[in-house]
Amino acid sequence: MYIRCMIPVVLLGGGNLAFHLAQTFAESEEIDLLQVYNRTLANIEEFEKFAPTTDDPEKLVPAAVYIIATSDKAIAELSAKLNDVSGLVVHTSGAMEINILSPKRKGVLYPLQSFTKDKNVNFESIPLCIETEETQDYVLLEKLAKTISTKVYPMTSAQRKKLHIAAVFVNNFVNYMYGMGEQICQDHGIPFEVLLPLIKETAQKMETLTPSQAQTGPASRKDKKTIALHKQELTKEQLTIYNLLSEAILKKNNDGNKL
Questions:
Q1: What pTM did the predictor assign?
Q2: Rounded to whole angstroms, how far apart are CA atoms 145 and 110?
Q3: Which of 18, 93, 143, 183 could share a disulfide with 13, CB 3.0–4.6 Å?
Q4: Where does the pLDDT of residue 26 fall: very low under 50, low under 70, confident under 90, or very high at 90 and above?
Q5: Distances (CA, A) of 25 to 12, 33, 41, 135
Q6: Angle, helix 224-231 to helix 236-254, in steps of 10 degrees
Q7: Which residues fall within 8 angstroms of residue 93, CB to CB, at 6 or more apart?
Q8: The domain 7-155: what is its CATH number?
Q9: Where in the chain is the domain with CATH 1.10.1040.20?
Q10: How many CB atoms lie within 10 A of CB 54?
Q11: Is 129 or 251 the better-scoring residue by pLDDT?
Q12: Which bin fits 43, alpha (ψ -120 to 50), beta or left (φ > 0)?
């Protein structure tokens, strides 16, 4: 009779990513979430429904994998408290290199997604970028990653850092643009929901077109008359960003190399 072997995991962190990982691990039939650590127990009270919690790094239980899901600035200090564990220690940062970890067995499990605690996520479709120093550790981390996601990518620290920068452009900066568009709508009594179909259509185009092929708008058309009209309606901050982006698009078009 075949007996499925679960992967014992200890999770360290109490933020949005840690919460969603804890929930996903607790629901998995192939991962045994043994414990959740955070230096402030009050911040992980709701994690108790997933696994026992602790605020004492000396009381961490033995596990195959220890996952540090904290802010980037806390990784090095926290990993130093795990030097004596025998399991694989991984962090979940896109920007930090693998060598920021001090334990002998180290790795990275970086989920490329934006996490909000109250917004449900399905890890199955979230890309997981993984890295280890040793082959046997890679096999273990890949196995863990594939239990929760169908999109697992081997990636070096250098590649992951570039990917993180790209993610800032397509997610964080784009979201700021949404906020700017929302403000313009609010200032003039226009419901922001009017823009939602356009936002969705633009995002869906990325599944079948390149960004260069999907680029539209007055700067792409070299419509300087419309651009001039827009500039008359903008605040100083809006104008600065509008000019920067419009000039970048115009330059790409003039160079024959669209965005």
A1: 0.86
A2: 10
A3: 18
A4: very high
A5: 13, 6, 20, 24
A6: 170
A7: 72, 75, 100, 108, 110
A8: 3.40.50.720
A9: 160-254
A10: 19
A11: 129
A12: alpha
Beta strands across the sheet bearing 128-132 = 53-54, 31-37, 7-12, 65-68, 88-91, 106-111, 128-132, 152-154
Say which DSSP state 55 is in: S
Among 54-63, 112-121, 128-137, 231-240, which stretch is predicted with the lowest mean pLDDT? 112-121
Q: What is the CATH number of domain 160-254?
A: 1.10.1040.20
R_g (Cα) of the chain, nearest Å: 23
Give the long-range contacts of residues 95-102, CB within 8 A, separation 24 or more. Answer: 95/160, 95/161, 95/164, 96/72, 96/157, 97/157, 97/161, 98/131, 98/132, 98/133, 98/157, 99/157, 100/75, 100/76, 101/68, 101/75, 101/76, 102/76
Number of other CB atoms surrounding residue 27 within 10 Å: 12
Contact 123, 111 (CB under 8 A): yes
- In this prediction, residues 222-242 reach a mean pLDDT of 96
pLDDT at residue 4, rounded to an integer: 59
Copy the structure tokens of residue 61: 């239980």
**Cα–Cα dist 112/45, whole Å:** 26
Where in the sequence of the chain do the CATH 3.40.50.720 domains occur? 7-155
Find where tokens 């993984």 sit: 130
Q: Which two tokens stand for residue 57?
A: 């790094």
Q: What is the DSSP string of 190-258?
A: --GGGGHHHHHHHHHHTTTS-HHHH--STTTTT-HHHHHHHHTT--HHHHHHHHHHHHHHHHHHHTT--
DSSP class of residue 63?
-
